[in-house]
Design a protein that fits this description.
heterodimer; A: 464 residues; alpha/beta; Rossmann fold; seven-stranded mixed sheet; six-stranded mixed sheet; globular; B: Arc Repressor Mutant, subunit A; DNA polymerase, domain 1; eight-stranded mixed sheet
Chain lengths: 464, 637
């Protein structure tokens, strides 16, 4: 059964670590990937042999800039999971990089996959035998159900109201245009195009605003970006390892060993965390180290949550204070490490001298002995989902699919305005506005036609 | 195939197809089945009343006009019959793009009836039978024919019900109401009872018409004339209509005085008194309803439309009401240009039974009654065009069913007819269904101007379109393809001549060489403008093309990109649209479907995965699960 189009999705399993896989399947998979991936040897990906891994860069064709370095695995039909051409882009695990790659592929013509769609295609292609069919059906249902639950959780809150509001404003504009088309032989005024354009622009602005608040949704789906910062040798890498409960980052007595940022995926109370271990934040003249410090600053800027580590055995130093002052308020947890080495008085003193109005008392832990780690986990959980956590009350887009649909809606609005402003026919404006409404309707599960007719008959006196 | 049931004596009252009702659906059904070689009976309450236009005698309009063109492209009668009888015709939406343009004609309603009756009586194999149906003759979930009240039994392999608003109909004017199909005509109460008896579910709708006045008593000077459009416009793809002088309509507006009259008598409106119950069409509100819902409007338009060349009656489009007659007279006289108008026929409302259309398959055959079809207003639609479209398809499928052949179904990407029928049988109706172009998701493809390209081959395969007609369409298509290639290859280089020509047409000069196809995308340039910019060879190839071919080429250029997008969307849905769901599938046994989806699917028994996907309560995940199960069954068997 030929399905026809090319689908794409993030397919990194939770805990898979620093590499993220963006998987694409369908007749255009190779062409789409070749459009954004440049192998380092300068050859064309489309000419690659099947089942070969290529190393190179993912480029944004609109500006030629490199988005990420990546390995690309190209597998031609039929010897693939779906019996279609399949391309996997293995990129850095940071969700930002994966999302950028995903978005590029969609811009090049791939469609975001529905829940369980790869499995469904595999089944339809006969890759999965009949005995497994029931479980495939169950799997599709289960994946959809969990995606739906996540979506519903969000939709119960402010998000659904915001989206419904935007959608109904779009329907108002569409109704005005459609009345002019379907009831033009009645007493209907011409459409005020500048006004329609201005309305669409306003809706577009609000929709973009909604997209910008999509933080938590991404966090829940793809992990909370958590930066571990502190001056050198306070034990950031040890803390990372303690939270992961395994050895990963290079731990050394020499200050500044962690020159690059190290990223790991951990799960705390069901919340996925992308832990980013940064080079020690301090002034340095060493070129390599300066580079690392620059990366650390960026990691802090991009982080959803910051674990600021101090060394309790040394107390709060002036360097600590300087560093802490430079951190963004509101999403920082102060962690006092090496509590096993610290005298009780030092712990008390650290608590007293910490910038308490901002951060409160430090969470005393020992990365070495594991003491206090449970309390830290509680603090992290509280910071993400507790009262005053990461702006849970804000309407946020829960899933990547919702974000993509909202972005599709924005593109439709942009195009509709271009068509309006260029003086092209009303029915073309309608096409674009409709595609936007349909994209938002896919988020809320609403059908356009009844709502459009309600709007038309409610607002316009139609009928002769 | 005719006469295969033996000699005339035994054939007697046995038919292949019996059509009940000779309105716009019934006429198309009977003609199509007869033209497909079936022996057909058309049963009507009165031979005098064929193809009546009880509402305003207009055919077409935006959305509806596309349906009429499609009926014509498939070999139906409505377009040609309108061409023979119109007193005015115009193209609507000329300020907008081609996809939403449509013809609307004002018919001489007597002439329309006469021509249709003429055609019906001259069609071989088609017999008109006057009588009222008493009951359906049914055994083992198969229709075998029907019985008339006068005792006759008509045997049939397939029956098409096209009884319009007549089922258990009640006419209401003010506080008076009485059983009637239309004013002055008996309702069909027996049939309604018989349909319930065989298990069909019925709903109740209402509809209304405005009063008619004597055209000699209006003052045209106080109104705006609405002339027709000259230039040989026509519905039919196949035949030039005879030339004629067109008659204007007139536009006037209600005034606050008119509104006062309505407002002060609203307590007498059937809307308020509750003497009318069914749901009415929102797109056709009565003047009472307009004044209740839009109290701030100081005026509403009233189109004064002649009903024919040989009658003085005029129709007051916009003044639909079933208020008592004395109020109707006061409303009319409070309206400019109508101060002295004499009321001829009062407006009235009619309440009637319709059949819940989700009981139908996409072929318009009943899911649980083999050989029984229905079409038109009985299915919950309104409008002559919607009726004709269903009538044609029901007639075709009744003929195929009588022959033991599989039905033909038009899809949503092929025709407005497909949109109409899919909407009806999949989503049902909560008000009388009227076609709007906004209902068609592939509006840019389903155009008035390409109905022949979309549908004539199917009409030909069914025997409804002649070889010569099909060749006409194929010639046009060949020229379009050739012209399309010529446009893509013809280049225009920037030059002083081209700069001047383009600037004089209000568009920017060329900065680089462009193809004629690219230039044609500029909204300011017509096809002929572009041709003039070409070199002699290209000009010869493109300049001599017939105007309908040039039109198609210009449309393709104008919608460039958007049409491709819709085609891509259609391809994407092909897999689901084309996947058949076997009849009688036990949805409740399928693992992975939600309970709601199971219930809805079991109740509606969709025929394709695409149809299933449009049922409210069936999610994309349910469709995926269903697809997997269907695929597995297929592999198993």
């Amino acid at each position: 059964m030929a399905v026809g189009d090319t689908i794409v999705a993030l397919s990194t399993a939770a805990g898979a670590g620093a590499i993220g896989i963006v998987r694409m399947s369908g007749p255009e998979a190779v062409a789409i990937a070749a459009g954004v991936f440049r192998p380092v040897d300068g050859s064309d990906l489309a000419g690659s042999e099947s089942h070969r891994v290529r190393y190179g860069h993912v480029l944004d064709p609109s500006n030629g800039r490199a988005v990420d370095e990546a390995l690309v695995l190209l597998m031609r039909a039929p010897a693939t999971y779906t019996r279609e051409d399949v391309v996997e882009v293995h990129c850095h695990g940071g969700s930002a990089a994966q999302r950028a790659v995903l978005r590029l592929l969609i811009a090049q013509g791939a469609r975001p996959a529905e829940p369980g769609e790869f499995t469904k295609r595999a089944f339809l292609a006969g890759r999965i035998d009949l005995a497994q069919a029931e479980s495939v059906a169950g799997l599709v249902r289960a994946r959809s159900a969990s995606a739906l639950r996540a979506a519903m959780r969000q939709l119960e809150g402010g998000l659904s109201d915001r989206i419904r509001d935007l959608r109904s404003r779009m329907i108002q504009v569409l109704a005005r245009l459609e009345v002019g088309i379907d009831f033009s032989d009645e007493d209907v005024d011409e459409v005020d195009r500048p006004q329609a354009s201005a309305q669409l622009q306003e809706i577009e602005r609000d929709l973009r605003g909604l997209l910008e608040t999509a933080l938590l949704g991404r966090a829940l789906e793809q992990g909370v970006r958590t930066a571990i910062v502190g001056r050198p040798n306070v034990g950031k890498s040890s803390l990372l390892n303690a939270l992961l409960m395994r050895e990963r980052a290079i731990v050394s007595e020499v200050p500044g060993t962690t020159r690059d940022t190290v990223e790991e995926l951990a799960e705390i109370a069901g919340i996925p965390l992308h832990l980013v271990d940064t080079a020690g934040l301090r002034s340095s003249h060493d070129h390599l180290e300066r580079l690392g410090i620059e990366r650390s600053r960026r990691a802090v800027e991009q982080a959803d949550l910051v674990l600021a580590v101090i060394d309790l055995s040394e107390g709060v130093t002036s360097a600590d204070e300087e560093l802490l002052a430079g951190l963004p308020g509101g999403r920082v947890i102060l962690v006092g490490n090496k509590c096993d080495l610290a005298p009780v008085s030092a712990r008390a003193r650290a608590g007293a001298r910490a910038p308490g109005d901002l951060l409160g008392s430090p969470c005393a832990v020992s990365a070495l002995t594991g003491e206090g780690l449970d309390l830290l986990r509680d603090a992290i959980q509280n910071a993400v989902v507790g009262d005053g956590g990461l702006h849970l009350e804000e309407p946020l887009l829960a899933t990547e699919r919702q974000r993509l649909l909202a972005e599709e809606a924005v593109r439709g609005l942009e195009s509709a305005r271009r068509v309006l402003d260029a003086g092209l026919a009303d029915e073309l404006v309608c096409e674009d506005v409709r595609s936007s409404i349909q994209a938002l309707g896919s988020i809320t599960g609403e059908d356009l036609m009844p709502d459009l007719l309600d709007e038309i008959f409610h607002r316009f006196c139609i009928g002769k | 195939m005719k006469g295969r049931r033996g000699d005339a004596a035994t054939a007697g009252l046995n038919f292949d197809v019996v059509v009940v009702g000779a309105g716009h659906a019934g006429c198309e059904a009977a003609l199509a089945a007869a033209r497909m070689g079936q022996r057909v009976a058309l049963v009507t309450l009165s031979v005098e009343k064929i193809a009546l236009m009880p509402c305003n005698p207009a055919v077409g309009g935006v959305g509806k006009g596309q349906l009429t063109r499609e009926v014509d492209a498939l070999g139906g009668e409505q377009g040609r019959n309108t061409d023979r009888s119109f007193i005015q015709i115009k193209m609507l939406n000329t300020s907008k793009g081609p996809a939403v343009r449509a013809l609307r004609a004002q018919a001489d309603k007597r002439l329309y009836e006469d021509w249709m009756r003429h055609t019906i009586f001259r069609t071989p194999g088609l017999e008109v039978v006057q009588g009222e149906v008493a009951s359906l003759d049914v055994s083992r979930e198969t229709v075998r024919g029907l019985r008339l009240v006068d005792g006759r039994r008509l045997g049939a392999r397939a029956v098409v019900l096209a009884t319009g608003t007549f089922l258990r109909a009640k006419v209401v004017i003010g506080d008076r109401s009485y059983p009637a199909g239309r004013v002055g005509e008996l309702p069909a109460d027996h049939l309604s009872t018989s349909l319930r008896a065989v298990g069909l579910e019925l709903g109740r709708f209402q509809s209304a018409t405005p009063p008619r006045i004597d055209g000699r008593t209006i003052d045209p000077a106080r109104m705006v004339p609405q002339p027709g459009e000259e230039g040989g416009l026509r519905f039919s793809h196949w035949q030039e209509p005879a030339a004629r002088t067109q008659v204007p309509c007139y536009l006037t507006y209600t005034t606050p005085d008119t509104h006062d009259v309505v407002a002060s008598h609203l307590h007498l409106s059937p809307l308020k008194s509750g003497s009318i119950g069914g749901r009415g069409p929102r797109y056709c509100p009565s003047i009472d309803r307009k004044i209740i819902n839009f109290p701030d409007r100081t005026r509403h338009p009233v189109f004064v439309e002649p009903e024919g060349a040989r009658t003085f009656e005029m129709y007051l489009q916009g003044l639909t009401t079933s208020l008592p007659v004395f109020v109707q007279e006061a409303i009319i006289r409070a309206t400019p240009g109508l101060e002295n108008a004499r009321l001829v026929r009062p407006g009235y409302a009619v309440e009637y039974d319709y059949i819940i259309p989700q009981q139908l398959k996409l072929s318009l055959e009943y899911k649980h009654m083999q050989g029984l079809f229905s079409a038109g207003q009985i299915n919950g639609t309104s409008g002559y065009e919607e009726a004709a479209a269903q009538g044609l398809m029901a007639g075709i499928n009744a003929a195929l069913s009588a022959r033991g052949e599989p039905p033909v179904v038009l899809t949503r990407d092929q025709a407005y007819i497909g949109v109409l029928i899919d909407d009806l049988v999949t989503k049902g109706v909560d008000e009388p269904y009227r076609m709007f172009t906004s209902r068609a998701e592939y509006r840019l493809i389903l155009r008035h101007d390409n109905a022949d390209e979309r549908l004539s081959a199917m009409g030909h395969a069914l025997g409804l379109i002649s070889d010569a007609q099909l060749e006409q369409v194929q010639r046009k298509q060949t020229l379009i393809e050739e012209g399309s290639l010529a446009l893509a290859s013809a280049q225009v280089r920037p030059s002083q001549a081209s700069d001047e020509a383009l600037e004089s047409l209000g568009t920017a000069p060329l900065t680089e060489t462009q193809s004629a196809a690219q230039l044609l995308r500029r909204p300011q340039l017509l096809f002929d403008d572009v041709v003039r910019l070409l070199d002699a060879t290209a000009r010869d190839r493109l300049g001599g093309l017939p105007s309908d071919v040039a039109e198609q080429l210009a449309i393709r250029a104008q919608y460039d990109g958007y049409i491709e997008r819709q085609m891509a969307e259609i391809r994407r849905h092909k897999a689901t649209e084309g996947t058949l769901i076997p009849r009688g599938l036990d949805f409740h046994s399928l693992e992975g479907l939600t309970v709601e989806a199971k219930d809805k699917l079991a109740r509606l028994q969709p025929e394709t995965l695409g149809q299933a996907s449009r049922i409210a309560g069936v999610s994309p995940a349910d469709v995926s699960v269903l697809m997997i199960h269907l695929h597995r069954r297929q592999a198993d068997s």
